[in-house]
Design brief:
The chain is of the alpha/beta class. It is built from 14 helices and eleven strands. It is globular, with a radius of gyration of 21 Å.
């Protein structure tokens, strides 16, 4: 049990240690106009050691943001364009026979990097998706009979286009659940769009992204996130939210029962707690408040809630259901 003095010490530590978050935001803003929501969610994934699924139409700077984030940390970046003819070996690597040395050598694939951009992940067949799954979950890759550990930090940032569904392989629930956050990337506002036009039409090259944060600072930040204080009442609040997605009738939400086919798994509770701690860290606080949980709830839960045909027929989204749950569950 942490004492008031322990919480004060961790609070002071975090106020100093979390300053690099502002440096990262500032550096990324040199090339990424707007999209603060997406940037913050990527940072939450990075500091929570969790993977992020980005959904949005093409042209919303998803690739540019991820690439710029890797440059700002001086981490190895790898982009994999997922296509229907992709093979697992194209992702993880393969064994190649060397005639001169009369032996098999391992050629590592693009998965051996710190930041993996899995572009249009739902275009790849199941075998490729499952190869990526081992890397995401176990943080290791098996090639032949050898298992290789992946470098830290290791972050998979997958994108999917919500418009085109022809020639795509929908991600199974078990794989979607491996993503800590699902972030829906929206359009820029009018002023941001004007700034984007000016930036692109003037013909000048984009500003260079400099390294402003070291990998050690990120790893140190991850360790501090785990030390952030979370009160028992906030833990109960998280459990109530997740349980309301499973048993809505127990929380005076009987009307949601016919709309939900399944609720969040225990991973939802774990990731909601971890993301809330990271949200507190990014706001330079050594303790979690209910607003941290509310701020991140949709990103953690939107891909973990199953909708019935009835919900889809009525155009009810998982976001609406999460809003309903947050509005009903008593805040501590």
């Amino acid at each position: 049990m942490q004492t008031a003095e322990d919480i004060r010490i961790i609070n002071e530590k975090i106020q100093h240690a979390a300053l690099f978050v502002d440096r990262l935001r500032s550096e990324l803003s040199k090339v990424v106009v707007g999209q603060l929501y997406m940037v913050d969610r990527l940072l939450i994934g990075l500091l929570s050691n969790g993977h992020v699924l980005l959904e949005g139409v093409p042209g919303l700077a998803k690739t540019l943001t991820i690439k710029s984030l890797a440059q700002a940390i001086h981490a190895k970046f790898s982009r994999i364009q997922f296509t229907p003819d992709l093979l697992p070996a194209d992702v993880v690597g393969t064994m190649i026979y060397n005639q001169q040395r009369n032996e098999f050598l391992i050629r590592k694939g693009p998965i051996f990097a710190n930041f993996i951009l899995a572009d249009e992940i739902n275009r790849a067949p199941a075998k490729v998706q499952s190869a990526l799954l081992e890397a995401m979950q176990e943080r290791q890759v098996t090639i032949g009979e050898e298992t290789h550990k992946l470098d830290e930090p290791f972050l998979v940032l997958a994108t999917q286009n919500p418009l085109e569904q022809e020639g795509t392989y929908a991600l199974p629930e078990a794989q979607v659940d491996r993503f800590m956050l699902k972030v829906v990337v929206g359009y820029p506002n009018r002023d941001e769009e004007q700034a984007i036009i000016r930036q692109q039409v003037q013909g000048q090259p984009l500003p260079v992204i400099n390294q402003v944060v070291s990998i050690n600072e990120i790893i140190n930040g991850r360790n501090l996130v785990k030390q952030i204080y979370m009160d028992d009442k906030v833990e109960q609040y998280i459990i109530d939210i997740v349980f309301a997605t499973r048993y809505p009738e127990q929380y005076r939400l009987e009307k949601l029962k016919p709309l939900l086919s399944y609720g969040g798994s225990p991973r939802a509770s774990i990731n909601l707690a971890l993301a809330a701690k990271t949200h507190a860290f990014m706001n330079k606080r050594g303790f979690v408040i209910p607003d941290d949980v509310k701020a991140i709830a949709k990103d953690v839960l939107r891909h973990r809630i199953g909708l019935t045909y009835e919900a889809e027929a009525e155009n009810i989204t998982s976001e609406k259901l999460v809003d309903e749950i947050l509005a009903t569950i008593q805040v501590p």
